[in-house]
Amino acid sequence: MHYLKREVVQVRAEVAYDCDVLVIGGGIVGLSTAYAITRAAPGTRVTVLEKEQGPARHQTGRNSGVIHSGIYYRPGSLKARYAVRGAAEMVKFCAEYGIAHAVTGKLIVATEQAELPRLHALVQRGRENGIPVRELGPAQITEYEPQVRGLAAIHVGTTGICDFVGVARQLAEASGADIRYGARVVRIDRRPELGVAVRTADGDVVRARVLVNCAGLHCDEVARLTGDEPGMRIVPFRGEYFTLARPELVKGLVYPVPDPAFPFLGVHLTRGIDGGVHIGPNAVPALAREGYGWGVVRPRELGATLAWPGSWRIARRHWRYGAGELRRSVSRAAFADAVRRLLPAVEDSDLVPSAAGVRAQAVLRDGTLVDDFLIKEGPRTVHVLNAPSPAATASLPIGREVARRALASLGGV
Q1: What distance separates the 2 farthest-apart alpha carbons in the chain?
Q2: What is the tens place of the pLDDT at every residue in 30-87?
Q3: Which end of the chain is more exposed for a tag (fewer CB within 10 A), N or C?
Q4: For residues 61 and 52, what is the distance between their CA atoms, to the nearest angstrom?
Q5: Cα separation values, 36 from 16, 40, 44, 89, Å
Q6: Alpha-carbon gap, residue 370 to 356, rounded angstroms
């Protein structure tokens, strides 16, 4: 999505509004918001603008398809509350609409002594978040995953998998909103006393009373187009995946113990809803907001990332971690070495390259990686500024919260 210099798009008081709430972004969070608005306030006119030709083309459609339990997240945080609640609601939603899903459970496996205290901390965190957790020794690990090796593990029974793209399509249909695909936003004029006017690349202008920004990888740019300063920037991190050529080696979902200093979960093994086993992702800087490969470079976007002070502070603070991720990006053998920590039987040739994803990670000016969901408001605007994983799992409660704020703004105008 390329944005041109902000230009005034006139909103005249005598011109009728095209909708009450305009949502920018047709990923699962934007569509869940539209769905929640029309459920909470029937008759509210909602329009969704999505620049792609269909829903869920970026973060929603390029993740590992896991319904997360919420075990990783700080008790009381939005991520913890919304993931725990959202996981149960997502299973119910999929069952109601016949969307492919399964509650599989997963293992989180410690392979080194240094990881054992972090594993035990996860047990405590899971219990604080109300998640049933079973602790396992080495022999018990093989009862769940015969080919997986570790010193200890925990089994989390509420984790599952589903077709998030199917969920997004159903949300779009069930919302009753006016969904416009191929509608790339290039200009926004927000008038607190009147409303918001949005111009798309094809010249259409849509006038709304309230705007909701669910633009994902471009949410900070959209916020700035409205005149709001988000106080963060999206720094894109590409996650690269492989498919396991011998899927029989893995029965379900297997994760390493994550490093709490980073919002990434590490290279994991996921038997997806299609029966294939996906391995990954790593986390490397992307050279474009939608930089799904090293060959995708957009100088303007890369320049904006490099101009943000937080980007350099991340690099200085975490260069050792980043160097390891880069090594696994350019070397299949190095990636396979990381996998063999969990799955010793895997061979380099078992890794078949698969589609990559890009995580929209919000970074503050001081280099802090925003760890929780971040939602901010301005006059007639609601901005979702950080909604990476587990946002797909948590999309139904996130959508309700964003809808609540949008409807409150609508009621005040």
Answers
A1: 73
A2: 999 999 999 999 999 999 999 999 999 999 999 999 999 999 999 999 999 999 999 9
A3: C
A4: 12
A5: 24, 6, 11, 13
A6: 22
User: What is the distance between the alpha carbons of residues 192 and 380, in angstroms, rounded to a whole number?
Assistant: 6
Please state the φ and ψ torsions of residue 68, each to the nearest 5 degrees.
Answer: -75, 145
Give the tokens for residue 253. 């979902």
Polymer length of the chain: 413
pTM: predicted TM-score of the whole model, two decimal places: 0.93
Closest CA to 271 of 105, 146, 99: 105
Q: How far apart (Å, rounded) are the C-alpha atoms in residues 337 and 340?
A: 5
Whole-Å CA distances, 99 to 35, 250, 309, 394: 17, 24, 43, 17
How far is residue 35's CA from residue 46's CA, in Å, rounded to a whole number? 9
The C-alpha atoms of residue 368 and residue 375 are separated, in whole angstroms, by: 17
Q: Is the dihedral of CA 32, 38, 40, 41 positive or negative?
A: positive
